[in-house]
Structures are given as structure tokens and as C-alpha cells.
Amino acid sequence: MGSFYTFLENFMVENWFSFFMFIVPFLFVIYKYMLQDSLGLTVGNRPNHVTRSNINTKCSKPDCVRCRARAKEKMYMEIHRRMANILSDVGESQWSQDGIGLSGRLRNSFEQQLTTGIKPMVDDEDGNQNPSMFYLQELRRKHSYEHLNDFPNYVQLVSEIKSHFSDIREEFDIVWNDFFEGSNIEGWQENTLSEGKWYTFHLMNQGKKQSYSMQRCPKTSKMLETLELLMSDCIFGFATFSVVMPGTHIESHCGATNVRLRCHLGLHIPEGCCRLTVNGETLHWKEKECLVFDDSFVHEAEHYGTDISSPRSVFMLDVWHPCLSSEEKKMLKYVFHSDLLQS
């Protein structure tokens, strides 16, 4: 055994350069495999899992409004302070000076939430609409907006989004392939699920523009800048690439508020194995088409396919509810401004 170690030592001394050239690529291959495995990206580029150490989960994000607000009263105290400020004589007078009047339903909703505390009271007998943060009373209750003929500006909005389909999908493909191959994971998150995998890439997160993500998707970002109905600078607003892997079930849940509508532009939709159920109605994504729905109603999503190379991919963005007045939107934006993330 000693002679073997002596031989090996002499070999390394005499052939150190050859040994170095051999061991470095070998170690690189091992490192790359370990990195891919830790990201859930195996040698075959199959995202089987994503570790929490590399990708932030939804519930561990320090600035996640819904999850953070449940645990910390400070943010809700600020929300309630703003509501109370609007309801006060001084606050109402200040808004009226700018020509903005407080609607009766907004006044009632603020008063009710200040009375009940964190959980909003919902006038929904069947329990299918249950937003977690804010509920505006007397707002039109409709879970699906397949036809938007009553709202011409929203017809125009959907048309504008669809007209940029090619650019949006092209930029999505770049950032997704980089993530899938493990070459660039920055900006991607995994949402916590009990079954399957759901990844998101935010261009706008809780109303705040994500500069790095927007730089990587300049055409999509430029399009977002033109959308006046987008919920920018409001904690309820997102613009996100959303990817659901085969075998995933996003269980029934309700969104944060009923003052927004959620729009899904289909980017890559595997045929016959994906569905979205909203308030008991089954909807199906289509490539190049938009699904618009009120996510304050109970909803769930499923991808029951088996082909790992065929995830369901959509571009998700939030817009103001079409039955809100411009005055109501201004007041809601004040109360739920994205600066709450700093509190």
C-alpha cells in the first residue's frame, strides 16, 4: 500500500499539469450536477424540486403582504390609520378639495373593517367569495368575465395585451429556459403547495416594479407601462409569469380583495390536461387568449398531465375592477399603496 501512495505522489509531482487539467473538469461536472440537483434541475433538465435555500417560497418572503400582514399588526395598523383618516372630517375635506368624493359603499366598507379588525366581512351567503384582506361592499359580484362587452375600455385592454403575445412569449421562453437549465435562477420563486410545483417570475410584485426582471423582459415591460388599468403602486397588483408543472394541484383558495380582476394570457397550454375552476365553473386556458376572472371567489388550478416538458405557462396581471369609479380607485390606492411594504 505504501508503494502505491509513493507511486501516486511521484506521478502527481511529475505530471501535475496533466493531473490539474483532468481534475478541474471532473470537479466542475460534479459541481454542476449538485447545483442542478439542488434546484430540482436534473441532468435531463427536469425540474423535480426546488430547495427553499435557492428559491424563495411564497410564505417566506419578508415583503409578502398577505403572509406578512397575518403575522404583523403594524401593517394593518397603518392601513386602518389611512382608512380612519379618509373617514375623518379633516380627511374627507382634504379629498373633496381635490374634487374626490367618498362613495357610500367605500365609507361603509372602511367603517366595517375598522370595526371588525383584520378580517373583512363579506356579504356572501354561499361563502364562495371570501377575500383575505379587503372587501368592498355593493361591488358587482361576477366570478368570470369571459365577455367584456359592457366595458369597452377593458375590451381594449385585453386586445392590447393579446397584440403583444409574440413578444411576451418570446421573453418568457428566454427567462424560463435559463431557469430550467439552471444557468440563471434570479427572479424566480416557488409557491408553497402540498401537491406539485408552481413557479413565478414577477415583473411587478405587489404594485412594485421589479427592475431586474423588467430589464430581462424589456418589450413586455414597455407594454405594461401603457396599461392605465394595471394596479401599479398598489399592494394588490401583480404582473407575473406563472408556470405550473404537470401533476400540480393549486388547491381552492380566495385572493386578497374583490377590487381587482385577474387576467391570464395563455403562453404555453398543454392540450386537454389543464383547467381553472372559479366559483364552481370550469374554465380552460388557450394560447394567445385571455381569461379574466375575479380571484376573490374560490378558485383552483390543475395540471394533470404527465409530460414534464409541457408545463402550463401564463402571463398573469391584475387590473382594477371595472365597476370602480376613478375616485374610489384613488382612495383605494392611497390606503393600499405599495409603500406599505416599507412599514
From TrEMBL:
- PANTHER family (alphabetical): ASPARTATE BETA-HYDROXYLASE DOMAIN CONTAINING 2, ASPARTATE BETA-HYDROXYLASE DOMAIN-CONTAINING PROTEIN 2
The membrane spanning regions, by residue number, are: 16-35
Keyword field: Dioxygenase, Membrane, Oxidoreductase, Transmembrane, Transmembrane helix
Q: Name one GO molecular function term.
A: dioxygenase activity
Entries under InterPro entries matching the protein: Asp/Arg/Pro-Hydrxlase, Asp/Asn_beta-hydroxylase, IPNS-like_sf
The highest taxon in the source lineage is Eukaryota
Q: Where is the Aspartyl/asparaginy/proline hydroxylase domain?
A: 163-322
Identify the GO cellular component terms for this protein.
Answer: membrane
A matching Pfam family: Asp_Arg_Hydrox
Species of origin reads Holothuria leucospilota (Black long sea cucumber)
Q: Does Oxidoreductase show up as a keyword for this record?
A: yes
Family, per the entry? Belongs to the aspartyl/asparaginyl beta-hydroxylase family.
Question: Upper taxonomic classification of the species?
Answer: Eukaryota, Metazoa, Echinodermata, Eleutherozoa, Echinozoa
Say yes or no: keyword Transmembrane present.
Answer: yes
Indicate what this protein is called per its UniProt record. Aspartate beta-hydroxylase domain-containing protein 2
